[in-house]
Design a protein that fits this description.
The protein is mainly alpha-helical. The chain has 17 helices and no strands.
Length: 479
């Protein structure tokens, strides 16, 4: 085995920064601005249930990184866990391909989402052709710059603004719920019944709701830089999951009853429904704060995502899996994987602008995020299997934590993917239009990239470079 070392700066950050590395990528205020709109468009008054299901499903998936983080500290995160699960490293390439797809399409949340939000906030500027590309460019330049400067300034920024964001959303939601008074309702919590949109739609909406919470496990990507990683990574995941629930579940309910359960069908079609509800019940101060926190939330998400992507790309490049070593080159002054940050951000920018020019920034964001949701579920499914295989390999297997829990998580993932695919295909067949065609095409391309591309790349390494796979994902910090 080749002995490797980290080029990242050890003990750079602590538990607080680790927690908000995860929460920063969750970006709760930005979720309210765009991803909850997608959920409302599918599950209507039961959107809060899709959010709750999404949180429960994602919490179940977090058992795997929580358990693996106690055994291995590697910036490669899910890729490294999968690559190191077996002696031959067979899970590594396909997990990396799926993770990479999630990274590149998932950037649409920030690059296109911010542009869409600014357009919703000030519709008059939509008359200026291609202005959203300028917003996307500014966003991309910001996240490259902040992440390039190193992990300390980037996570200090996400920690401070993230805590303020959670408190604002919780307090604001409580005020809205109190002011709604007698118009509070149990209908948002119904899964079946005359007022329910149906379990299938709720589960499809949960794909977008899962994306609301996606990011809670990315603190594993700073495993080589956080103080006492085998202790603080797991704690960061737990704290981040609690804070996301506190921020998003009350907000989803508050938006539903604040808009009006009987009128909820118009929520998703309204240009700025979330802003309208906050303005109605919290006045000018509330809406100004929501706008500020939402814009900041997009930037915070971008910084957190860039930090995570650059670290696991660095790890894979160190292993010579998928990426050449040059991608993982460390900037010696700031101790950041600068090349990985720049390459990822520019690839994402080009894809998002191309899609945005075809469909507009908002619809393009939804289309790309559908593929993002499916790809990250597949990443988690490989990670779940890796937990079982790896703990058996090192003789630390526990039936409940390492066998039953990850197996249940994988089964739930398959169910969610089934409902997502069913909904996409049904709409493509019954309601043909350019947007539904694009959703279907996005799904097909996602499957080809992950399964087709993943299998081809894996076979390539098995036949041509088996020694690389044997060493992949084996790096492990001692502490």
């Amino acid at each position: 085995m080749v002995v490797k070392k980290t080029g990242l700066e050890k003990n750079s950050v602590g538990l607080l920064q680790g927690t908000f590395q995860s929460l920063g990528q969750v970006a709760p205020a930005a979720d309210i601005a765009i991803l909850l709109v997608a959920s409302f468009s599918i599950s209507g008054a039961q959107t809060v249930m899709s959010v709750i299901f999404g949180w429960i499903i994602y919490a179940l998936w977090m058992i795997t990184p929580y358990e693996l983080s106690k055994l291995k500290s590697n910036a490669g995160s899910y890729y490294a866990y999968a690559a190191g699960a077996t002696e031959k490293g067979g899970f590594g390439p396909i997990t990396a391909m799926s993770f990479m797809y999630y990274d590149i399409t998932g950037a649409a949340f920030g690059i296109l989402g911010l542009s869409a939000f600014l357009f919703l906030m000030a519709p008059a500027i939509t008359s200026i052709p291609y202005l959203w590309i300028l917003f996307a460019g500014i966003f991309t330049a910001f996240i490259i710059t902040v992440t390039y400067l190193g992990i300390r300034p980037s996570l200090k920024y996400t920690a401070i603004t993230g805590l303020m964001e959670v408190l604002f959303l919780l307090i604001g939601s409580i005020i809205i719920i109190i002011k709604v008074g007698s118009h509070n309702s149990i209908v948002p919590f119904e899964v079946t019944g005359p007022y329910s949109i149906g379990f299938s739609s709720i589960m499809f909406a949960s794909v977008f709701s899962i994306l609301d919470f996606t990011g809670s496990g990315v603190v594993t990507t700073i495993s080589e830089e956080i103080h006492k990683p085998k202790k603080n990574i797991g704690r960061s995941i737990v704290f981040a999951m609690i804070l996301t629930a506190v921020a998003l579940i009350p907000s989803a309910y508050a938006l539903t009853v604040g808009w009006g359960v009987g009128n909820i069908s118009s929520f998703a079609s309204h240009s700025d429904a979330g802003l309208t509800v906050f303005s109605r019940y919290l006045g000018p101060v509330g809406i100004i704060l929501l706008i500020i926190f939402t814009i900041n939330s997009y930037f915070s998400n971008g910084v957190s995502k860039a930090t995570a992507v650059s670290r696991w790309w660095y790890s894979a490049a160190r292993d010579n899996v998928i990426f050449p070593e040059s991608v993982g080159k460390i900037n010696q002054k700031h101790k950041s994987p600068a090349n990985a940050v720049i390459i990822w951000a520019l690839l994402s920018f080009v894809l998002d602008v191309a899609m945005g020019l075809i469909y507009g920034p908002l619809v393009a964001a939804f289309i790309l995020e559908a593929g993002t949701g499916i790809s990250i579920i597949i990443v988690h499914m490989f990670a779940n299997t890796s937990l079982t295989v790896y703990t058996r390999r090192i003789h630390k297997f526990n039936l409940l934590k390492h066998g039953i829990a990850p197996s249940v998580a994988t089964i739930v993932g398959i169910i969610v993917i089934y409902f997502a695919i069913s909904n996409i295909v049904t709409k493509w067949l019954t309601t043909p239009n350019p947007v539904n065609d694009a959703y279907f095409a996005s799904f097909i391309f996602t499957m080809l990239w992950i399964l087709g591309g993943g299998v081809i790349v894996t076979l390539h390494y098995f036949k041509r470079k088996p020694e690389i796979l044997r060493d992949a994902g084996e790096f492990n910090m001692k502490s």
